[in-house]
Amino acid sequence: MKIACVGGGPASLYFSILMKLQDPSHDITVHEKNPAGSTYGWGVTYWAGLLDKLREGDPVSALAVSENSVSWSDGVAHVGDRTTVHPGDEGFGIGRRRMLELLAERARSLGVRVEYEREIEADRLPDADLVVAGDGVNSALRQRHADHFGSEIELGRNYYIWLGTTKVFDSFTFSFVETDHGWIWCYAYRFGDDRSTLVVECSPRTWSGLGLDAASESDGLALLEKLFADLLDGHELIGRAQADDTARWLTFRTLTNRTWHRGNLVLLGDSAHTTHYSIGAGTTLALEDAISLARALRKHADLETALTQYERERKAELLSVQSAARHSAQWYENLPRYIRLPPAQMFALLGQRHSPLLPYVPPQLYYRIDRAAGRLEALRRFKRWLGPKVARGVQARARR
């Protein structure tokens, strides 16, 4: 099979690796419009379950990713001058640039052609049996046929900015700071020996009230360093991952598509779907897409059958994740509802922000139910049943 992958992100690269391992005779090219080593973002997060899947697909690249990652287990939340610590599952961080280097190196070693500074025009697809659109949320290939794919984008309310810092965090760290214009907060995690990712978020009212809407990059970073001075402990914030890249405030775009393929063109990763950054699942979901697509192509010789199975499988698996991401985003958009709780309760509900029941139950009552559910299996089952039922009822009434 001749395969052209448009976009050189983790999903395209890992998919090319898996396909070469399935059949070395596949003719595979990955086309990336940006120069080698040029990427947005800082570090990405993932959990142990992803490593298990990567080991099953390709132990060599899994080992390389694991050896270049850092890990943490505790979560720490600072709310004003209050701090609470909560033990959690082991999480991992790796620099996005480093992950891309490792996957590209592995792909080339298997015979994949990885071509940089090669932009594919949407109206002139490569001559290939399969064209994989792994070119992100702004996919030109998807946008050319947006009506066919049924693309829809929902904008989040809050503003956020993705930054780096020289402060190295030992734990996954949250910090909430109250200002005269409302709360502003960040979460931070390390992805190397000398760097961490730090994502700042706030409401539109706070964003404009602090002047962040009109501030230059340098003035904005200086203000954020002042607001999070206790957290940063004298370390700087870095706005540019590349010399020609400027950190920008954004609102999150949740992308969905009615269908994921058209003829021999198939969507992969962020070109097919996005989930709010607050659940840290974007890279994991993209790599899982690659695994699913490669598996479907191995199982079915007929391309249409394989792409249909891939789409059906991934849509089903994404339902719960996308729901969790929506509720997580809404938790932050309704932060005043939770921020005045005692620190232990507030952090507990921060960990429960994916719950469909939480928005419809008074926070302190939910906390007591959650604590009791941890001790009583019958109550735990009731909570799992009641959450989706309440959410569906409220949503149905809202549509009337």
Write the layout of secondary structure elements.
Elements: E1 2-6, H1 10-22, E2 27-32, E3 43-47, H2 48-57, H3 59-67, E4 70-79, E5 82-95, H4 96-109, E6 113-116, E7 130-133, H5 140-144, H6 146-149, E8 152-165, E9 172-179, E10 182-190, E11 196-202, H7 204-209, H8 217-227, H9 229-232, E12 237-238, E13 250-256, E14 261-262, E15 265-267, H10 282-299, H11 303-333, H12 343-351, H13 363-373, H14 377-399
Parallel strand pairs: 1-2, 1-7, 2-6, 4-9, 7-15
Antiparallel strand pairs: 3-5, 4-5, 8-11, 8-12, 8-13, 9-10, 10-11, 14-15
What does this molecule look like?
The chain has 400 residues and is an alpha/beta fold. It is globular and about 60 Å long. The protein has helices at 10-22, 48-57, 59-67, 96-109, 140-144, 146-149, 204-209, 217-227, 229-232, 282-299, 303-333, 343-351, 363-373, 377-399; strands at residues 2-6, 27-32, 43-47, 70-79, 82-95, 113-116, 130-133, 152-165, 172-179, 182-190, 196-202, 237-238, 250-256, 261-262, 265-267. The termini are far apart. The protein is built from 14 helices and 15 strands. The relative contact order is 0.13. Helix 3 (59-67) packs antiparallel against helix 4. Strands 3, 4, 5, 8, 9, 10, 11, 12 and 13 form a nine-stranded mixed β-sheet that branches. It has a six-stranded mixed β-sheet with strand order 6-2-1-7-15-14, with helices on one face. The model is unreliable at 389-400 (pLDDT under 50). Helices cover 42% and strands 25% of the residues.
